[in-house]
Specification:
This protein is an alpha/beta fold. The protein is built from 12 helices and 14 strands. It folds into 2 domains: 4-18 and 270-368, Aspartate Aminotransferase, domain 1 (Alpha-Beta Complex), CATH 3.90.1150; 23-266, Type I PLP-dependent aspartate aminotransferase-like (Major domain) (Aspartate Aminotransferase, domain 2). The strands form 4 sheets. A 7-stranded mixed β-sheet has the order 2-10-9-8-5-3-4, sandwiched between helices.
Length: 369
């Protein structure tokens, strides 16, 4: 039987994720597998936690990678905190805010939403007005909305919630590793991310972090966490303490990959990594402008790692993306929801965010168009 793995070609991943992976991360994942309770593997686990805390600027003890993609991180946060009837406010300006609403509703929460035009940020004044009407257990927002390329004002929303009993939950799937996140300073109680975006590790793990307040809320539940696999009251016993209790078999080699990916960010320096993302974003914007291609999002709330661009007139969405992939081995993303067929989403995430990739894409786009 033909082995399809022998026929995989290297693609420059410039879509909304996954991103390109450094060879050292792939090599780390090929390191000999240890048992998930092996003493040396426990040391690696502890080091991963320390690295995540450092890059999230948090002292939260419960800062761990969940076994699963970013969506598993989202489910982990909601399923551990929500009980039936809990009041939840979700701020929506794209697909992933809608996904938060869906998950919270499935768990029986009393979900209110504030919705904003796709391609524009959440308005702090509108959130302030909504919070004056009602108290919520959770306010949830996406930091970097992958479907539109918009950066939401997370620090300002956190300031609105300061001193309240409301838990502030943030989706940082696309932002973590590409722009600064100061979890404690911004008043974020609960955060989840994924490895496949700016961390430049293959999909499969979801870093999450819970503040002491959030952990207390989980422990104060009147009912059991409805999802056994993502129940942090049990998982925490595997990631913390002198004696580690088996919950589920950890994806050992994926954790090796995350360890190395975090190591690369620390070696380059967090500030330098964030600046690299911004510099390559600006390089892309200038190059697209020269080709007559405009950005969807206003400059003051654009993401550096996810660039939404208007599809030029007379350019066929799918045909251009197909030609880039087939002829130039470059992947870019399509628009979603109301933006389908109207925009392309160009990712400059993690290892992908390099000038040679920007220049290669611009040259390929010029040829294809």
């Amino acid at each position: 039987m033909k082995n399809l793995l022998n026929h995989i070609e290297e693609i420059t991943l410039m879509g909304p994720g996954p991103s390109c992976v450094d060879t050292s991360v792939l090599n780390a994942m090929a390191t000999p597998t240890l048992g998930h309770l092996d003493p040396f593997f426990i040391q690696i686990m502890d080091s991963i936690k320390e690295r995540l805390q450092l890059l999230l600027h948090t002292e939260n003890k419960l800062t761990i990678p969940v076994s699963g993609t970013g969506s598993a991180g989202m489910e982990t946060c909601f399923v551990n905190l929500i009980e039936k009837g809990d009041p939840v406010l979700v701020l929506i300006n794209g697909v992933f805010g809608m996904r938060m609403q869906d998950v919270a509703t499935r768990l029986g929460a009393a979900v209110d939403t504030l919705e904003f035009e796709w391609g524009t940020p959440v308005t702090v004044a509108a959130v302030r007005e909504k919070l004056a009407e009602k108290s919520y257990k959770i306010v949830a927002v996406v930091h970097a909305e992958t479907s539109t390329g918009v950066k939401n004002p997370v620090p300002d929303i956190g300031q609105l919630l300061k001193g309240s009993n409301t838990l502030f939950l943030v989706d940082a799937v696309t932002s973590f590793g590409g722009m600064e996140i100061r979890m404690d300073d911004w008043g974020i109680d609960v955060l989840y991310s994924g490895t496949q975006k700016c961390l430049s590790c293959p999909p499969g793990l979801a870093p999450v972090s819970f503040s002491d307040r959030a952990v207390a809320a989980v422990k104060a539940r009147k009912t059991k966490v409805p999802n056994w696999y993502l129940d942090l009251t049990m998982i925490i016993n595997y990631w913390e303490g002198a004696t580690r209790a088996y919950h589920h078999t950890a994806p050992v080699n994926m954790l090796y990959g995350l360890y190395q990916a975090l190591q690369l960010i620390l070696e380059e320096g967090e500030t330098s990594v964030c600046q690299r993302h911004l510099d390559n974003h600006l390089r892309l914007v200038d190059g697209l402008k020269a080709l007559g291609i405009d950005m969807l999002v206003a400059p003051d709330c654009r993401l550096p790692m996810l660039n939404s661009v208007h599809i030029p007139e007379n350019a066929e969405d799918a045909k251009v993306r197909s030609a880039l992939l087939r002829e130039h081995k470059i992947e870019i993303g399509a628009g979603l929801g109301p933006l389908a067929g109207k925009i392309w989403r160009i990712g400059l995430m993690g290892h992908t965010a390099r000038p040679e990739n920007v220049d290669r894409l611009l040259a390929a786009l010029k040829t294809v168009l």
